């Protein structure tokens, strides 16, 4: 039953992703009102191509084309994130996600503290990049930092005692599952969604669910966590969660907002730290 409930939540999240225009665009790039996920296949083929070209996938394709053309030999170190961002006129977040997409394909190798290197294998081989179903995971994390801070503030003023009981259960589960990443992540998701539930606003709940699940459905997410997620980060996050809970329990909206913002800023900083 829990699995079925999770699937239902995820389906609702995907639908709200499109309804809220997180990725709801037509072939001309204009928002499409109330489009369900089942309608995506009926859109013009150019839609996915155009969306990919504007996303980190478009940048990944450009960098791969340079590798295939011989601009970088096997084992060569690529320019820094900042240099690539300046060269292509994009954000460093977009560069980070493009590099990880290339790493997933085996085109480059990321060495923390050293840099980004062209793989010794056949990096020039043709590859097919999966068109993302939504924004990149880091982009989504930044949006969460803005939105969930206000959600936490509202939860502090609207929460009921029963909400506190559910939040405390999630908090306790995270503490007990600190060494089990899968179980910890499930409780982490539950904690954030229960904060949104505490607002009594279903739109906010669906938004938070959509942002959480859209990021983790991206193939880049696992690779990002492989590089940057650690037990130390979980321990720091647990302390953040305790501060968020305490602020919501005290009905202190300002403290709840600040605690949530600090928590997600910590995660973003960890996931975007320089590779060299």
TrEMBL record:
The residue ranges of the HTH gntR-type domain are 53-121
* Record's keyword annotation contains Transcription: yes
- Provide the GO MF annotations for this entry: DNA binding; DNA-binding transcription factor activity
Q: Which CDD domains match?
A: WHTH_GntR
TM regions (residue ranges) = none
Q: Tell me yes or no: is Ligase among this UniProt entry's keywords.
A: no
What's in the keyword line of the UniProt record? DNA-binding, Transcription, Transcription regulation
Taxonomy, superkingdom: Bacteria
UniProt xrefs under Pfam families? FCD, GntR
> Which protein is depicted?
GntR family transcriptional regulator
The organism named in the record is Burkholderia contaminans
């Amino acid at each position: 039953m829990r699995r079925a409930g999770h699937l239902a939540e995820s389906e609702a999240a995907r639908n709200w992703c499109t309804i809220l225009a997180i990725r709801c665009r037509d072939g001309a790039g204009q928002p499409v009102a109330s489009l369900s996920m089942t309608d995506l296949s009926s859109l013009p083929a150019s839609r996915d191509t155009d969306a990919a070209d504007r996303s980190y996938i478009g940048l990944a394709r450009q960098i791969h084309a340079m590798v295939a053309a011989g601009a970088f030999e096997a084992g060569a170190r690529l320019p820094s994130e900042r240099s690539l961002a300046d060269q292509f006129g994009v954000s460093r977040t977009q560069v980070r996600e493009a590099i990880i997409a290339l790493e997933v394909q085996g085109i480059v190798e990321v060495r923390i503290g050293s840099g980004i290197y062209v793989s010794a294998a056949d990096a020039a081989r043709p590859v097919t990049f999966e068109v993302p179903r939504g924004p990149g995971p880091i982009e989504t994390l930044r949006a969460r930092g803005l939105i969930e801070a206000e959600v936490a503030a509202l939860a502090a003023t609207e929460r009921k005692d029963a909400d506190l009981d559910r939040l405390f259960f999630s908090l306790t589960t995270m503490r007990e599952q600190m060494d089990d990443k899968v179980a910890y992540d499930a409780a982490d998701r539950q904690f954030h969604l229960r904060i949104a539930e505490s607002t009594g606003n279903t739109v906010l709940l669906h938004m938070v669910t959509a942002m959480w699940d859209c990021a983790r459905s991206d193939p880049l997410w696992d690779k990002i966590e492989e590089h940057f997620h650690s037990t130390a980060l979980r321990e720091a996050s647990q302390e953040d969660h305790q501060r968020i809970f305490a602020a919501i329990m005290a009905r202190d909206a300002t403290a709840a907002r600040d605690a949530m913002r600090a928590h997600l800023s910590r995660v973003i900083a960890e996931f975007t730290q320089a590779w060299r």
